[in-house]
Structure formats: C-alpha cells, structure tokens
Amino acid sequence: MPMNAINLRRLTPDDIPLLADWMVTVPLWQRYNLRADQAAAQFETALRRGDILQVADLPEAPACGFAWGMIGGAFGRSVYLRLIGVRPDLAGHGVGAALLDNLEQIAAGVSSDLFLLVSDFNSDAQRFYRRQGYEHIGSIPAYVLPDVNELIFWKRLR
Ligand SMILES: CC(C)(COP(=O)(O)OP(=O)(O)OC[C@H]1O[C@@H](n2cnc3c(N)ncnc32)[C@H](O)[C@@H]1OP(=O)(O)O)[C@@H](O)C(=O)NCCC(=O)NCCS
Questions:
Q1: Does the predicted model carry a pTM greater than 0.85?
Q2: What is the position in ligand 1's atom list of the atom closest to the CA of 83?
Q3: What is the pLDDT of residue 124?
C-alpha cells in the first residue's frame, strides 16, 4: 500500500456509524464485549469533549482506521491513547503506523508524553507499539477483564 494512498483527517459525526460497524468485527474488541451503540456513544462524547480524534481513509475504504487520544487522560498531565484501530481486512499495510505518527504529532503540541494500555495477550499490537518507540513500563493486573493484565506503554514525545 503506497503511503500516499492513506489520507488522514479529523473525525466527523458522519464517520461514527461507519467506524462502529467494523469495530465490532475486531476480535480484540469482541473479547471486551464492545457493542456498536456503545462505540458510537463513546465517539460522540469524545468529539464533544474535544479529544484528539483522527480518521484514515483509503481510496476504496473511507474511515478504515482511527486513533483516539484524550488530552490529560494520563495522570491529568499527558495524552492517553484511548483506542487505535484499523479495519481487520486492511491491517498490516501501514495505516496504523500512519495514524499513530499523526496522533503523536498532534499530541506533542499539548503533551510531552503519550501513554497507552495494551492487553497482555495482544502480542501483535505490543510489537507494533515497540516498533513505534513505546516502552513497557508497568502492568495493571485484571484492570478491565478479570483474566487479562493491561500493560502500560509509554513514549516521550519531546
Ligand atoms: C494494531 C493496529 C492498530 C496496527 O495497525 P496496522 O495498520 O495493522 O499496522 P501497520 O501495518 O502500521 O503495522 C504492522 C504491525 O501491526 C501489527 N498488526 C498487524 N495486524 C495486526 C492485527 N490484526 N492485530 C494487532 N496488530 C496487528 C503487527 O505488529 C504488525 O507488524 P508485523 O508486520 O511485524 O506483524 C491494527 O492492526 C488493529 O487495529 N488491530 C486490532 C485492534 C488493536 O489491537 N488495537 C490496538 C490495541 S487498543
């Protein structure tokens, strides 16, 4: 996939149903029992609050990826990457990396660091974040699901 085929832009209300529809097909989020109506409500709240919400389009696939950062979402001080995702049939083509680079550039304007949580079993995403310069700095046992530890990843942006 040529990098210039990926268009990055701010999320608009029209994107929300599209995103919510494919999010419920992602195995990771199925394990967290995500429903489309919940996903849509979370995006609407985030949009109203002024969170960082970026979307990726490919020529034949509008809104095929997104990144959501909460300003001050980590310790009232740093940006917290709440969620990032790419439509499953388009994973592994650089859309996620482009979204994360873009979110980091925006976040660097308001925060010196970025924090995120990743499930202990999600080794693909852990590799993705490590390659993007994130370090595993701690873990929260059974934080969201009783049988899953959430790993804290951190990157200094500036
Ligand atoms: C993790 C994710 C955002 C990466 O975006 P992407 O566009 O697939 O990633 P890129 O093409 O930029 O980078 C490729 C790397 O992403 C990771 N990756 C690829 N497919 C993946 C998948 N289905 N699930 C998780 N990670 C994946 C791998 O580390 C891959 O590196 P590899 O080639 O060494 O295996 C995306 O795959 C995804 O949405 N996964 C499901 C949801 C998720 O795990 N979100 C992150 C935790 S909240």
A1: yes
A2: 48
A3: 97
Host domain of residue 14: 3-156
Q: How many domains does the chain have?
A: 1
Atom of ligand 1 nearest to the CA of 81: 48
Phi-psi region of 94 (alpha: psi -120 to 50; beta: other; left: phi over 0): left
- What are the distances in angstroms from CA 12 to CA 21, 40, 55, 56, 137? 15, 12, 9, 12, 34
Question: What is the mean pLDDT for each group of 10 consecutive residues in the chain (158 residues)?
Answer: 87 98 98 97 98 97 98 98 98 97 98 98 98 98 98 97
Enumerate residues lining ligand 1, CB below 6 A: 26, 28, 83-86, 91-97, 118, 122, 124-125, 127-128
Q: Kindly tell me the sign of the dihedral angle through the C-alpha atoms of 76, 68, 98, 140.
A: positive
Minimum CA distance residue for ligand 1 atom 27: 124
Nearest CA to ligand 1 atom 10: 94
Specify the CATH number for the domain of residue 85: 3.40.630.30
| Vertex 133 angle, CA 152 and 69, to 5° | 60
